Amino acid sequence: MPRVILASQSPRRRELLRRLGVTFTVCPSHVPERNLRGESPARYAIRLALAKAHSVSRRYPDCVVIGADTVVVYRNIIFGKPRSPEHAFRMLSTLSGTCHEVLSAVAVVQARSHRRFVDLDRAVVTTRRLPADHLRQLAHKHQDKAGAYAVQERSDEVVKHVRGSYYTVVGLPVHQVHHLLALLGIPSNDLPEPDDIVSAAGNAGR
Question: Which of 69, 121, 144, 190 is catalytic?
C-alpha cells in the first residue's frame, strides 16, 4: 500500500486524518494562497487543494498526497487567513451575526499512476453577534484560520449553528476524504457528526 502524505501543517487536519485511522506523514506544500481575478470561491479552493497536493506529489511520486483548502465566503467575498490582528478583527466584525458559507476542498493525488481525485463540500455557518471587545480578544487567537475563528473552540462563542458538516468548517471534509482514499484502495474510517452544533439537515444522508 502506498505511503500517505498530508500536504498541510494544520494541526486540525492532522488530528482529523488520525481519527480517520489513516497512517500518514506530514509534508507542507507552501503554495501561495492568492485568488485569481474573476475566480469563484469554489474554483479557488479546488485549485489550491490540487496545487498543494501536486506540489508535494512531484517530490514523492509513489505516495498518495492529500491537499486541502478551506475558505470562508460572505457576500461572495473570500475570507482567508488574516494578515494581522487588526485584519482578523475586521473579519470577525464583518462575519459577526451573519450566515455565511465555508467551503473545504480536498485533492488526493498519486503522481506515478497519474491518478487524481478532487471534491468540495459546503457548510453554512450562523454566528452570534458578539461585542467588539470580545472580538478584539479573539482577533489575537486565530491568526492561522480562515475567517479568524475556530468552530472547535466552543468557549469563543462565535459559532451558533452549522448546517452541513462540522468537519468541513474545521478544515477537512472527512466524508469526502474517506471516499477519495477508497478510490485508491486506502481504507479509512468515517466520522459521525457532532449533534450539538450541526443541524439534523446537515446530517441527512451521511
Answer: 69
